[in-house]
Amino acid sequence: MRKLKIAGTGSCLPERVLTNFDLEKMVDTSDEWITSRTGIKERRIANDGTATSDLVIVAAERALEAAGMEPEELDAMIVATVTPDMFYPSTACCVQKQLTQKKIPVFDLSAACSGFLYGLEVANGLIASGSCKNVLLAGAEMMSKVVNWEDRNTCVLFGDGAGAVVVSPTDGDHGIYASCWGADGSIGELLMQPAGGTRMPPTHETIDKKLHTVHMKGNEVFKHAVRAMGDAATHVLRKAGLSGEDVDFFIPHQANRRIIEATCRRAKVPLEKTVITIDKYGNVPAATIPIALDEVVREEKLKRGDIVLMASFGGGFTWAAAVLKW
């Protein structure tokens, strides 16, 4: 069975920076409060008129350039997001319209913060089966459009951005060694955007009550997140015959620095091997992992043969992890 390798990475972050000090002027909060509880100092916010697909296109073009490929060489495209341009057509179709004339299968995937690693699992299956050779996978979010900017408990957490990878088959000793994914829908109400779908269609009342924005029970989310992400990371390391000490780079989902630190302890991965970007970008749900991966690649920190561990958790609840040899 052919393994999947990451042939190229790319990312796109809006230019506008919103700092904690900016937020002090908007809601009843402080830089000290946000930093001590989340580790976030600033986040990126897209301009009005910018859509999720706009960020994906830039990230995708950069990933293709890094892979030395043209868009016409792609066999499929997956966009992981919970903030699509619209319900349909898919954000992936919006990207395809601008990126390539090739009539390849493209689709969106919704698994919240686990979306990118869910997409990696799907892409791995497409490549392993021989159905596809080159797959573009993107994680992208426009959270500034769906947060309640009057709710200090949630608006301080999120940012906008996109990350993308081109994945291809490899017969060598590098590529994905082990992966896992899972979900528990029984606790989905802990983190949700209640209105806008068929359960609660848009009305003046739902808009007035801000039910189209993020609602979260933070303390409960924290406990489930640490357990799910830590156990997923431990599981894939065990499947690959590795330990936390064998990891060269750990790229966790960036939701909260305290969650990241607790996950490292649970999975026995040294914190100094962990890539942390939450201070700069906040939580960009499906995009945090590919953005962080692209950053370490472009800073030339990753070298051939390095062991990379990735783990995530998200609304649903969902979780996933993967370990690969670079």
From TrEMBL:
Protein function: Catalyzes the condensation reaction of fatty acid synthesis by the addition to an acyl acceptor of two carbons from malonyl-ACP. Catalyzes the first condensation reaction which initiates fatty acid synthesis and may therefore play a role in governing the total rate of fatty acid production. Possesses both acetoacetyl-ACP synthase and acetyl transacylase activities. Its substrate specificity determines the biosynthesis of branched-chain and/or straight-chain of fatty acids.
Pathway(s) the chain acts in: Lipid metabolism; fatty acid biosynthesis
Protein family (similarity comment): Belongs to the thiolase-like superfamily. FabH family.
BP term (GO), one: fatty acid biosynthetic process
Signal peptide (from-to): none
Cytoplasm in keyword set: yes
Record-linked InterPro entries: ACP_syn_III_C, ACP_syn_III_N, FabH, Thiolase-like
Chain's gene name: fabH
Comment block on domains: The last Arg residue of the ACP-binding site is essential for the weak association between ACP/AcpP and FabH.
Chain ranges of the Beta-ketoacyl-[acyl-carrier-protein] synthase III N-terminal domain: 107-185
UniProt source species: candidate division TA06 bacterium DG_26
Active site: 113, 253, 283
A Gene Ontology term for the protein's cellular component: cytoplasm
Region (ACP-binding): 254-258
Entry's EC annotation: 2.3.1.180
Superkingdom per UniProt: Bacteria
Domain annotation Beta-ketoacyl-[acyl-carrier-protein] synthase III C-terminal: ranges: 237-326
Protein name: Beta-ketoacyl-[acyl-carrier-protein] synthase III
Major localization class: cytoplasm
Catalytic activity: malonyl-[ACP] + acetyl-CoA + H(+) = 3-oxobutanoyl-[ACP] + CO2 + CoA
Database matches in NCBIfam families: fabH, PRK09352.1
